[in-house]
């Protein structure tokens, strides 16, 4: 049975250690964007998104010790100590000049997971899967050659569309990746701390747990 992961539990993993992992099963996967967003605020990069089984997902984070990222982590702790929100709103730029609607931190976090997944796996697996399904459908159509109507239906409805999809998937996913990458870069630029010496990794559990809330 799936459970609700609370913010204090998420924060306890981002306590300054070099690596943090989350194994999410079933509906727990809905917390992945929030986990990624919290990790970003505390100076952790999403290294990998793995699927040990069909029903589980593993998120692997590593601590980023670059000065700008440690600056962001320090500012997050200071914000929490002052009673501020765990995840600040983000003024996302749009295609229309002069408009910057505020969005939740989960949107760039979702894009960040998409970028990590694409860079690790590319589009080959998805294209190969669609191609194999198409080949299977062509084979079924061949078996049904004595029933021209049924064979034609399999070809038109399944085999040909899947073949076209297999060819187009790399292009579609590349566009999707570039869109997410631009969103992630804009978010990183706007959330990079400026000025002041870089802090050391936070020792122990992060300050400000009482202000973090119970999550979703």
Describe the structure.
- This protein has 216 residues and is of the alpha+beta class.
- The protein has seven helices and five strands.
- The protein has a three-stranded antiparallel sheet. The protein has a two-stranded antiparallel ribbon with strand order 4-5.
- The chain starts with 6 loop residues before the first helix and ends with a helix.
Would you identify the regions where 5 or more consecutive residues have pLDDT less than 50? 193-216
Structural class: alpha+beta
- State the share of residues found in helices, binned by percent: 40-55%
Sheet of most strands: 3 strands, antiparallel
> What oligomerization state is this entry in?
single chain
Strand elements, count: 5
The dominant shape is: elongated
Element-by-element helix/strand order: HEHEEHEEHHHH
> Whole-Å distance between the termini?
17 Å
**Number of H- or I-type helical stretches:** 7
Q: In what order do the strands lie side by side in the largest sheet?
A: 1-3-2
Radius of gyration: 22 Å
Strand content: 5-15%
Overall average residue pLDDT: 80
Offer a concise description of the structure.
This protein has 216 residues and is of the alpha+beta class.
Keywords:
single chain; alpha+beta; three-stranded antiparallel β-sheet; two-stranded antiparallel ribbon; 7 helices; 54% helix
């Amino acid at each position: 049975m799936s459970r609700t992961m609370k913010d204090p539990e998420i924060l306890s993993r981002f306590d300054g250690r070099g690596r943090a992992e989350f194994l999410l099963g079933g509906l727990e996967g809905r917390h992945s964007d929030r986990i990624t967003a919290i990790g970003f605020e505390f100076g952790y990069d999403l290294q990998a998104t793995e699927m040990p089984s069909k029903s589980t997902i593993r998120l692997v984070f590593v601590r980023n010790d670059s000065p700008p990222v440690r600056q962001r982590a320090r500012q997050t702790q200071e914000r929490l100590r002052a009673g501020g929100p765990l995840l600040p709103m983000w003024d996302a730029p749009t295609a229309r000049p002069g408009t910057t609607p505020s969005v939740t931190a989960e949107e760039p976090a979702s894009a960040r997971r998409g970028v990590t997944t694409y860079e690790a796996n590319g589009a080959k697996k998805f294209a190969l899967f669609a191609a194999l399904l198409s080949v299977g459908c062509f084979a079924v159509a061949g078996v049904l050659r004595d029933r021209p109507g049924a064979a034609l239906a399999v070809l038109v409805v399944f085999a040909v569309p899947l073949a076209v999809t297999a060819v187009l998937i790399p292009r579609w996913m590349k566009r999707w990746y570039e869109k997410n990458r631009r969103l992630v870069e804009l978010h990183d630029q706007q959330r990079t701390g400026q000025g002041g010496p870089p802090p050391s990794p936070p020792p122990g559990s992060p300050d400000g747990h009482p202000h973090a809330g119970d999550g979703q």
